[in-house]
Design goal:
4-stranded antiparallel sheet, 6 strands, disordered N terminus
């Protein structure tokens, strides 16, 4: 019994276990909030509808085929597959390094935010075309419609709804290139998953960019481990010869 208690105490004191649980909770919480918001907007707003909460904040329902903030790069299928591969690698990386003492807790949090945000948008791309219809305004979407969804697997559209038109102005006519044009900051419409990715990346760049090289990960992969072991053996084998050579040079002098 005492041995079991000792083992339990060691496990409970293991910071890697606590950080692993923390990362799981962060990812799960962000995914739940993101999907609840998207499903609610999708089933209560028609496409293009917006409601003002504050003068600087609106709920505006749009959909896009692209990346964060409505950007579009390349084909839809290629983009979705790239997201899946990226998230898969990040999850693997997080599982490998969350117990390492070199990995700071803030670094784990940043990775968790990025993984959760990317996974949230993957869910839209993978399944929303299957489980929602896409009616013309002013009709709102129906979940699990009898006639089926609007798309196929991996071709769904990402739901965005957070809109922050913070400030706007018209550029003076005398300014080159932009004179007389209307400018709005901040114009992109995004979702909770996009916000998680952005916060995670910003914090990572500002505070934890050095962790990418400080946390040992690549050296544990088979290729790098084999290469490092081979290099170590070569150094060990050459050490006696190097010592004899140095001793001979000393005697000659």
């Amino acid at each position: 019994m005492s041995e079991l208690n000792t083992t339990d105490n060691i496990v409970s004191r293991d910071p890697g276990t606590g950080r692993g649980v923390m990362a799981f909770i962060i990812i799960l919480t962000i995914l739940l909030i993101d999907q609840v918001m998207k499903i609610w907007v999708k089933t209560h707003f028609y496409l293009g509808e917006s409601h003002e909460i504050f003068p600087w904040f609106q709920i505006a329902f749009i959909q896009n085929n692209g990346m964060a903030f409505g950007w579009e790069i390349g084909s839809k299928l290629l983009l979705t597959l790239l997201r899946i591969v990226t998230v898969g690698f990040l999850i693997y990386y997080l599982c490998k390094i969350h117990r390492k003492h070199q990995a700071k807790t803030g670094y784990i949090v940043c990775l968790s935010l990025i993984i959760a945000g990317a996974a949230g948008n993957i869910i839209d791309c993978a399944f929303y075309g299957l489980i929602f219809d896409n009616p013309m305004p002013p009709l709102v979407a129906q979940i699990f419609p009898p006639e089926g969804g609007y798309g196929i697997f991996l071709h769904g559209k990402v739901v965005d709804m957070l809109y922050f038109p913070l400030v706007s102005w018209t550029w003076p006519s005398w300014m080159p290139f932009v004179g007389g044009e209307y400018f709005l900051f901040f114009s992109p419409v995004f979702n909770f998953a996009d916000a998680a990715i952005s916060v995670g990346l910003i914090l990572l760049i500002i505070f934890y960019s050095g962790q990418i090289s400080e946390v040992p990960f690549l050296r544990e992969l088979p290729f790098f481990s084999k290469h490092a072991a081979s290099k170590k053996d070569t150094v060990t084998d050459n050490e006696p010869a190097r010592r004899d050579n140095d001793h001979q040079q000393v005697n000659e002098n």
